[in-house]
Design goal:
heterodimer, A: alpha+beta, ten-stranded mixed sheet, 12 helices, 51% helix, elongated, B: 2 domains, 12 strands
Chain lengths: 395, 384
């Protein structure tokens, strides 16, 4: 075990001399911290967006749209079709009827607070059953709207991101005016970006006749999905596609999530190359300034492997420091940051919060250690191979 | 001139350090180039939007359709040169991930209004002769390897066809249009008359209108005239310049784009600071040599110049290569397959990059140069 002790001793000695080389060590630490900030912060955008979208889906809910439609926006179902869908087996029922809500999904132009320019805010026309279907929805201010009127309730995310959505205010849309009577929460999911009103009123306002775009149902159990879907898709009177709500929202979040991840990863990878150069530079400087010390150690009988490992460890300790600093900066700076963006798949805004998750921090740390390892290899080899006699004679 | 060998020797006195410093500068400017490209992409080519074109949409929202008959009335408005309509098709080609824009329009009028889209005249004739004809942008055709004469099936999502299996529309590719650099050539255009006669519902409805006006200076006035014409009708309109339209559309993405760019710029700046520090360090190490130079009778100016030129060489070579590579990468086109329609490195940003190189060289060279100039020979020589 003596070689282990050697490694520990030399590494400890190395690390104790770091404060004497703060300037050049900082190059490596800052470079690596920078990469981790970019990586973690950008991925936290994708993570937050995905969480808002996927969090919206419950396992025991299914969404029915016209076959071929890729989002609620492009779907269309007639009133009689919606009535037929409500008859399907597998839907949970109570004395108030089936837990199924036929809905309309449109957008209304409201100014975005951050830019002042109009944004496509989603507006959903719902039926009285909708609150039984979506149990996570609860009012935090005001009251539920009255069906049959032009009252609406707005999600807290929408109220935060867009102007004119406080209780009591009025939204004008074309020749129609809506009154906001309440604000609701929905576990931070995408529904919080929506404005809800009576489906019937919305049909009139948007001249949709007796038509809907989707039917959302709550199933008896998640397992009844298959029989529910088969009944609907085999019915010759209907031409519909049935999806689990979770799958639907996961698919809706794909485009943006993959765009952000691709851009974020590509940029971080490029920066990592730069940071590795920085680490190499730092470690070469470290080896060069300590050439005499290293040679002395070797002359005293410490073996080359111990020197090699010690340089590598120093590089990785610096990298880990950079990784921790970067992760901390990303977490302090971005976790929970509220924003909204356009989801092109539903052609409407989604409000969400950046999420710096422990998993992302671990990814950042793993990247930083990898950079430290790669950056340390060449200088470590040089240190191990240092010709003892010449190094001792220098200076 | 006789100083060139001296500068050269100084640069390479520590080969590894110079190499890696160059590499760092290179990566930093490569990033800068790509960053500016992404920034331009997030603005959806707003710089390329025409000032003499207006967009007319439904007042309630872009998703609400407008009657096609409006187009004749818009054409009669004083100051309007031409007008046509577009309808978003939103079909799926093979897989929902293969997203691209599909727009139904009036071929001749539309392409006359967009001179930056270039379609060979014989292909336009072929299109006018074929109701099922469609033309694709160069980037789109290359993405899927389409040739003129191919049949392109699209699964309908909004407009269900009357014929066939009730979901598939088939188009004949009769032309491929090119665009000026930076123009979006990722769209497919096909004929509105074919859409209208073959869709199950929505007869006579279009998505939005594009209007070309005589004088960009009168855009506000003409936009008002159009909106007033349809005020209090069943479908009121909202008219903006194409630039304003694209800009407000780009802003819908919100601060995500801005935040990504801010993070990257901050980091890029830090990286440059670190590099500058390393470069400055390289000069500080040679204080005594500079003193020797001065002892030999070299003037302050010459000493300062050697130090500055050395820093500049690293900044310009590393930065130039990085920016050059970024430019080459951007020429290869959008790597995300159509998610970023305008994938260009704007000339303005290239100029900014060159200025940044100069700034980096100055920043890295200035401090050590000044201290070299102030250096008192006796002090410097005594230090070692």
């Amino acid at each position: 075990m003596s070689w282990m002790r050697e490694i520990v001793a030399v590494t400890a000695l190395n690390l104790r001399t770091v404060p004497g080389r703060l300037g050049s060590s900082a190059v490596a630490v800052i470079g690596i911290a920078g990469v981790v900030v970019v990586l973690v912060a950008v991925l936290s955008i994708a993570e937050g967006f995905r969480a808002a979208m996927v969090g919206a889906g419950a396992d025991d809910r299914a969404i029915v749209m016209r076959s071929g439609a890729d989002s609620e926006m492009t779907s269309g179902l007639s009133g009689p079709e919606a009535d037929l869908i409500r008859q399907a087996p597998g839907i949970s029922r109570s004395e108030q009827g089936p837990d199924a809500s036929a809905e309309l999904f449109v957008v209304v132009d409201l100014p975005k607070r951050s830019t002042g320019t109009p944004a496509n805010v989603p507006m959903r026309g719902v039926e009285p059953a909708s609150l039984r279907v979506r149990r996570e929805v609860s009012l935090v201010e005001g009251r539920m709207f009255e069906f049959g009127t032009n009252e609406v309730i707005a999600g807290v995310g929408a109220a935060r991101q867009f102007e004119g959505l406080s209780v009591g205010s009025e939204i004008r849309s074309g020749q129609f005016a809506w009154t906001v009577v309440g604000l609701f929460e929905a576990d931070g999911s995408v529904a919080e970006t929506e404005i809800w009103c009576d489906a019937r009123t919305l049909q009139g306002a948007y001249r949709r006749g007796n038509s809907y775009q989707s039917v959302l149902v709550r199933l008896d159990t998640p397992a009844s999905f298959d029989s529910f879907r088969d009944w609907l898709t085999s019915n010759p009177q209907l031409n519909v596609a049935v999806r689990r709500e979770r799958d639907y929202y996961a698919q809706q979040s794909e485009g943006i999530t993959s765009l952000i991840r691709t851009v974020g990863m590509a940029i971080a990878a490029l920066m990592a190359i730069g940071a590795i150069f920085g680490a190499v530079l730092t470690m070469y400087t470290a080896v060069a300034t300590r050439a005499r010390e290293i040679a002395t150690l070797r002359a005293l009988g410490f073996n080359a492997a111990a020197v090699l490992v010690s340089v590598l460890s120093e590089s990785m300790v610096l990298a880990a420091g950079g990784g921790l600093i970067g992760g901390l900066v990303a977490w302090l700076g971005f976790n929970g940051y509220q924003t909204s963006t356009m989801n092109f798949q539903s052609f409407s805004q989604v409000a969400f919060a950046f999420r710096v998750t422990p998993a992302l921090l671990l990814v950042g740390l793993a990247w930083s250690l990898a950079m430290g390892l790669i950056g340390g290899i060449l200088p470590a080899v040089r240190a191990a191979r240092l010709p003892v006699a010449r190094a001792l004679r220098e200076l | 001139m006789k100083l060139v060998p001296l500068i050269w020797k100084n640069l390479w006195r520590r080969k590894i350090r110079t190499t890696f410093t160059l590499a760092c500068v290179f990566v930093a400017f490569l990033l800068f180039g790509l960053l500016m490209t992404i920034r331009a992409a997030f603005s959806f080519g707003v710089d390329l939007a025409g000032l003499d074109r207006l967009i007319v949409i439904h007042k309630v929202s872009l998703i609400q359709p407008l009657p096609e008959s409006y187009v004749e009335r818009i054409r009669s408005v004083e100051g309007v040169q031409a007008a046509t309509h577009n309808t978003w098709f939103g079909g799926v080609y093979q897989d929902p991930r293969n997203f691209f824009g599909q727009i139904a329009t009036e071929p001749e009028v539309y392409f006359a209004m967009y001179p930056e889209l270039r379609l060979p005249p014989e292909q336009m004739e072929a299109w006018l002769a074929d109701r099922q004809g469609a033309v694709a942008g160069r980037a789109l055709a290359e993405r899927f390897g389409w040739q003129i004469g191919d049949r392109i099936p699209l699964q309908a999502t909004i407009w269900m066809p009357k014929s066939g299996d009730g979901t598939t529309w088939t188009f004949n590719l009769v032309g491929i249009y090119d665009g000026e650099p930076g123009t979006d050539t990722t769209n497919l255009f096909f004929r509105y008359d074919y859409l209208d006669e073959n869709r199950q519902e929505g007869d006579g409805l279009v998505g939005w209108f594009v209007v070309k006006i005589d004088d960009p200076g009168r855009s506000v006035e003409i936009a008002q005239a159009v909106d007033e014409m349809f005020a209090n009708s069943s479908a009121e309109t909202k008219t903006t310049t194409e630039k304003g339209f694209v800009d407000s559309f780009a802003k819908q993405i919100g601060d995500i784009g801005a935040i990504m760019i801010a993070i990257l710029s901050a980091v890029l700046f830090t990286m440059l600071l670190v590099v500058a520090n390393t470069m400055a360090q390289a000069v500080r190490e040679r204080t005594s040599e500079l003193a020797v130079l001065k002892t030999l009778g070299f003037s302050n100016t010459v000493v300062v110049a050697t130090v500055l030129v050395e820093a500049m060489v690293i900044a310009v070579i590393g930065g130039g290569l990085g920016l050059g590579l970024a430019w080459l990468i951007v020429q290869q086109g959008d790597p995300t397959n159509g998610l970023l329609p305008a994938f260009i490195l704007p000339g303005r940003d290239v100029a900014a990059g060159v200025a940044l190189m100069g700034a980096l060289g100055l920043m890295a060279g200035a401090l050590p140069a000044v201290s070299a100039m102030r250096l008192r020979i006796t002090d410097a020589l005594r230090r070692n």
